[in-house]
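Methods: example folding runs. The two proteins below were folded one after another, and each record is reproduced exactly as written to the output file, sequence line first and structure-token line second.
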Amino acid sequence: MKIENALRDQYRKLAKDQGYRSRSAYKLLEINNKHNLIKPNDTILDIGCAPGGWLQVAKKLAGPDATIVGIDINPVNTITGISTMQVDIEDKHVTDKIRKNFPFSFDVILSDLSPKVSGIWHFDHERQISLTLVALQISSKLLKRGGNALFKIFDGSNSGYVREEAAKIFLKVSTSKPKASRQKSSEFYIVCLSFKG
């Protein structure tokens, strides 16, 4: 078995053993350990939250009194102490719909968005970037001043543009590729600290 496949299976087994809904939970744990995105009692919005692995991590990191909200175009099975909402982020009224259900601002916004991959790289990259730019726009409207955000990116010709746009509204922007990501995968994460408001 190739080392990369062994690592992927290792994280999958860990997720099953530790009760996480996806191995991507370990990506968020690793990034947070390095960048301290999530703090106790934070209000957190997870955009594209299905199946819920990041919601579980957010609750673990922010604690039992934190307010955690997840949104996704697909339904998400209930997680105790976490609110979810089924909504299309590309709906032009999505921000208003979120505010109607959750009338407060967030300390942290997370986005692990990925399109249904077609296998046509140029198309998949463009689609993923488009979704991430929507998530960035939502963040600009719903984050508290000084808040943090994390966005998945498919590396390619337009990934630099997303980072440039993020740098306009956050004081510090950096990139991260956690060990739980497949090394051959094009995905990486943009870590955004201190929303300028």
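Second run, written to the same file directly after the first:
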Amino acid sequence: MDDAEGYGDPRTLERRIARMAAWVENSVLLKADKEATYYETIDINMDEIKEPILCAPNDPDDARLLSEVMGEKIDEVFVGSCMTNIGHFRAAGKMLESFEGQLPTRLWVAPPTKMDAAQLTAEGYYSIYGKAGARTEMPGCSLCMGNQARVADKSTVVSTSTRNFPNRLGKGANVYLASAELATVAAITGKLPTPAEYLESWKKINASAADTYRYLNFDTLESFTERAQTINLSPEVVEAAKKLQSA
């Protein structure tokens, strides 16, 4: 490898590639021991869930039904973090595409990887975000950790990130955790919708769900498969990876 395409030391990526290749040759999946016991077993009947569930400010363990918090005014919305995949950004884009006018909220959009961003750009979604007035961030953590960008002080926010601890996304901010689809509806309406309002919006993207939620795989992208053909790993790196795999 001549370079790491901005991700750091090429040797680090070489070792990762070699380790993955060694695992593919001798793949071993983790599984629980037959005699394993657990502190607690939680069974959830998904058929009983009839509406979205959010985590209320500012505690990721404080789960609420949408009907319990509907109507709350929302100032900012973050669609991003490692909790999202490309399908969530397509869904957001399809919801925003039919919106006209100025959003009543500040909408942040940050795909988790450069690969997602490139594909979304190729499919025209970045132009939709721009037309709607969304602020697109560099792929990565963005608002999630609050160390790359911050929401306004004391704002009320809907975020697709993993945590909503006090002051994490912004000083004094009240942060709800929700799905990308619900977050986008909140961005468009400026409030947490009713379950009926959410489901009406959901119908618009559910009709094309097979296309919207297509996974993005490296082996289907020419730019990545062509680059992969040019990578040559040293025998020393390959041998070290095999030893670690068999250890």
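Comment on the second run: The mean pLDDT is 91.
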